[in-house]
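Why show two proteins at once? Because comparison is the fastest way to build intuition. When a single record is shown, students tend to memorize it. When two are placed side by side, the eye starts asking what differs. So, the first record is below.
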Amino acid sequence: MKSLVRWGATLGLVGSTLLLTVFGVNFPVLALSEQQIKDKLDAVPVYLITNDKGLPLSRALPDGQNGQKGGGSVTGVYMSRQEAQAFITELRNTKGKDPKLDEVVKSLQVTAVPLGIIYQQLQETKNQPNRLVFAFKPVEQEIQGALALLRQSGQKVDQFKSVPVFAVRFAPEQGYVPIQMTSDKQQLIPLFLSKQDAQGLLNQVKPKYPKADIQVIDVDGVIKTLQSKNDSWLTQVLLVPSPESREYIKTLPRDNAPKAPGASQPKKLQR
């Protein structure tokens, strides 16, 4: 698990301003490799609570839960650095009766890791009896935004159990709206972790495409699609972190940041 707290300069890609560009380019159909999927997920920072040795804070699972043998443990993965820090603050404000435990709480800190590292760890341990288990902590504001959009589309939903992802479409039954990175003019298909960002892109395309809308997906559906589909446009998918995470990304060194691939016309993701 120590590898989870190592950080590389892999998050510089989305620091640029996004500029809308509509296009249609055909590329050969190529399946994405595990490394390509990891690279895409690496664009999104997630946040673990770790101790002074860099080990993630985990809680024990009852024997047999989630298919685990011998109990196992689960590690919380926050989508918001601020919410992870708020949890630590809450723990510190709770007076305990165990001095050793209080000392551990004092040493806790928020550590950012690429989402791709979490994915890699899950893939490497998925067939092990005590495989790693991560509990994602979505941002409540994004959950409520996703639920509101789903209800607007006529779906009757009371909860959203995954991390929501927002994609802008030309129309409900048409493809996704692409963007262009101003830094290198690469054409990409953005999948936003923030409804606010998706709304910004929607506002740009609405005058020309009145039926344009925001589709709500989830991170599990995105990963499943990347793993199972051979559509060429998937090479152009770009996961766009939240504004909070982009601000964090700006503080990181940009050397050896990943490069974005070329472009092709998108179709639907599965949810």
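Second record. Ask yourself what differs from the first in the token line.
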Amino acid sequence: MGEREEALKVVEIPGRGRSLVASQPLKGGQIVLKDSPIILYSALPLIPASSSYCGHCFRTLPLPPQPIPSCPNCNSERFCNHNCLSAASTSTHTPWLCQSLLRLRHHHHSSSLSLEHQLQARFLLAAHNLANLSSPHFQTLLSLQGQSDDPESAAAAQFILSLISSVCPPPSSGWFSLELSAALLAKDKLNGFGLMEPFSESAQRSVRAYGIYPKASLFNHDCLPNACRFDYVDSASPFDNNSNNTDIIVRMIHDVPQGREVCLSYFPVNENFPSRQKRLREDYGFGCDCDRCRVEAQWSDHEGEEEQGHGEEEEEEEEGEELMDEDVDQTMASSAEPEPESDFPHAYFFVRYMCDRNNCWGTLAPLPTPKSNVMECNVCGNLKNDDQQLSMDDA
């Protein structure tokens, strides 16, 4: 872990806050961070209580006839095995948290809560649980970005705090204040990572659990990221025997020099400019001004002019497609990435680093092995060697 931490350093970048930059030249495929969650909680509705995922490690539960142990107190949470059940009783499913969730479910029977409020209640209870279990980890949570002056978080905190105060047994330390609850909800909104359901070519993936990762939360967003996250929830990482299945592992997509900021994309890179800007403003409170967005913002500025052309519109569209094809050909012919100032800076990225499997849109990064020319998709797990897609089973 020490070597990985040395690959990145925390710096303050004007307008971007705390950021992670390369403290040495980094190679494509290099693992630069492994991070464990300080909070994990289910992303599923309170009812039905039983899910197809373990209540501790969130692996997909085994199929019958293999026995699946349940919590003896609530009989709602199910676990991979007795080891997970035992570990959960002192971490993710303590007796206090068990009883709190049980009472919240009973309340939900008579008073329907929106899914958003259910998840916010789950998080605040998990935060209370963390404060009771580990003061150092709770202080780390408090140090993350997110303030109580966020209007949405303040309104939600008032409702959720009133709810859990009336239906749940207070912990020994009492309940959080309204201001602290609002700040915690804001921190969850800005720093939470989703642990996703298994990939499917025929269905949209949803979130099975949310986690807060203290180091990974420092990564800023870029619409052309130079790193991407991998998680191996249903199995331990094949490249790190010491990792837990809920750890986030961040690998470099391509080489970057020392001093360059290392960024993730907060969502699939195939989203268009308006959609990206909308999600970033609504979910994270900022607009993106990366190289790709600056180019695509100019395209957006000309959309109205193109619409006024009527008869010229189809002609211009065809011309634009031809230019795009030329740009892609040029970037594919080059072994280096295009300069940020180019007219189409993401063409090379799409061709080289975006998975083309149906319904995936994941990002490819080289395997963390010396001189590897095989890249792994961080969503579906497929491997790409030159122009051939190989499944994990065939690798």
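One difference worth noting in the second protein: The longest strand covers residues 8-13.
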